[in-house]
Request: fold
Amino acid sequence: MEFRSESVQGRSEKIGSSVSVIPRTRIQVWFISVCSSILLWTCIIQIVAVGELWHPKFITNITYKFSQITTDSHLHVSVRSRPPLLPARNYTSQGFLKVSCNGGLNQMRAAICDMVAVARLLNLTLVVPELDKTSFWADPSNFEDIFDVQHFINSLRDEVRIVRRLPKRFSRKFKFKIFEMPPVSWSNETYYLQQILPLVNKLKVLHFNKTDARLANNGLSVELQKLRCRVNFQALKFTPQIEKLGYKLVRILQDKGPYVALHLRYEMDMLAFLGCTHGCTNEEADELKRLRYAYPWWREKEIVSEERRLQGLCPLTPEEAALILQAMGFDKETQIYIAAGEIYGSERRLAALRAAFPRIVRKEMLLDQVELQQFQNHSSQMAALDFMVSVSSNTFIPTYDGNMAKVVEGHRRYLGFKRTIQLDRKRLVTLLDLHQNGTLSWNEFAVSVREAHEKRMGQPTHRMVIPDRPKEEDYFYANPQECLCEGSSCKDLLAMANSSVR
Ligand SMILES: *[C@@H]1O[C@H](CO)[C@@H](O)[C@H](O)[C@H]1NC(C)=O
Ligand SMILES: *[C@@H]1O[C@H](CO)[C@@H](O)[C@H](O)[C@H]1NC(C)=O
Ligand SMILES: *[C@@H]1O[C@H](CO)[C@@H](O)[C@H](O)[C@H]1NC(C)=O
Ligand SMILES: *[C@@H]1O[C@H](CO)[C@@H](O)[C@H](O)[C@H]1NC(C)=O
Ligand SMILES: *[C@@H]1O[C@H](CO)[C@@H](O)[C@H](O)[C@H]1NC(C)=O
Ligand SMILES: *[C@@H]1O[C@H](CO)[C@@H](O)[C@H](O)[C@H]1NC(C)=O
Ligand SMILES: *[C@@H]1O[C@H](CO)[C@@H](O)[C@H](O)[C@H]1NC(C)=O
Reply:
């Protein structure tokens, strides 16, 4: 202790001596040393501050987001104080926008972000979105059963006014007829400003009765793109009940080490819709076909499964997934969480995966029946749990690129390009078939599988733009690149992406 204070004094005397020539009493020496220590510390703080300026802002952002996530996961239950309210944006509302989302949880999530952006663009007042209760999943949950509605409203106050319900004067009781329509898919700002705005102005209330993919991926203003992200990453928070159980699942898994979240989209609805029957019995194939005919709005009825599979358009079967994971180098010790609902063919179809990876778990195995009961008949709430576990996983592997795969992939990019393996299914089924008929040895197969995915791990990349073919483009929510880096560091990051990809 003494040694240290002496050395500081020694140094400070040197600094002090150049400024003062007055005789030194002990007090003066002490005074000078205190002052110069302060000076020294100021210098250090300055240097640190300058260092931070050099530090790419992107990195600090990420560490910030990481720490937010980790602290969140520890503190969310005990400390749930609302942040102070932002000042509300002052604008003249041009009318009310009512929306009914369609599809599963993640499709609706993206749609909610789009609808907030549309309301902001047109200066409308948004009514809290209605969720789909009639889709295949038939989940009766309302917005407030899944998302923290007060947080949603408050955290977007500075952009758009959101109300829980339409004012009474627009109700049927007052003979008000609300005009409903689906907006044109993949539209840009021009469409909403020129076609929709005059309509709302005239009608006071407009009801969008479909919301999936109604806003273009590209060609929108950066402000609007960033707003979509802000809704997705900050304003949409699950309810405390869902968060509590989701974090519990994550903690149970993390306590046992790193884990892979496998979004095994081998569920009945998907297989029936796509007509993928590879690995199914004849009875199962018939059942899937009957289901397809039972849903009138599924347009394609006659489908040749093998053709579709060879085009890479079928989800991997559980057996295929087991081989691919092994080829990628995951071993018997790997902890795998199956993020999915009911697997078609259940345990029988999971046998190969379980044999290769004994540490496979599902939420039903990690939580007790009572805890899950409240969510049981609510597929969207179950999907919310899987969403949380998937976002937090060390590696995320979706076996099909549906909405969940895409939205989770984008979320993981935002959290610092966490590893998401984007399977090249067309390539994989060819390799699988060649391995299975003996053309490729295990080693050749494994090397080819790994090589095919080196550049498909969720690294920084440019979102692919294809003019006039929005469906084939990269989806905005899978790679919201406008929100992943800022300022000059963005250039470096994307230059890096250019040199390392393709
Ligand atoms: C909102 O803006 C209008 C017009 O710019 C102004 O008259 C009004 O006082 C503002 N209201 C608030 C609450 O700031
Ligand atoms: C929305 O309101 C802002 C002022 O708050 C105004 O500048 C802008 O032109 C308005 N846009 C539309 C589409 O009404
Ligand atoms: C949406 O509204 C349009 C126009 O009223 C109608 O034709 C269509 O069937 C509606 N769609 C849904 C899903 O309600
Ligand atoms: C918006 O979409 C329309 C119709 O698809 C197109 O003609 C127009 O060029 C687009 N505008 C912008 C700014 O991308
Ligand atoms: C869920 O629904 C099934 C059948 O619809 C019913 O038998 C079961 O009791 C329900 N479970 C809960 C927890 O509500
Ligand atoms: C294996 O399958 C490929 C294509 O599916 C075929 O070209 C090849 O001849 C087959 N090899 C054997 C040994 O059957
Ligand atoms: C990267 O490539 C894209 C097109 O592939 C191009 O538009 C962009 O300017 C490139 N960025 C840098 C920083 O080189």
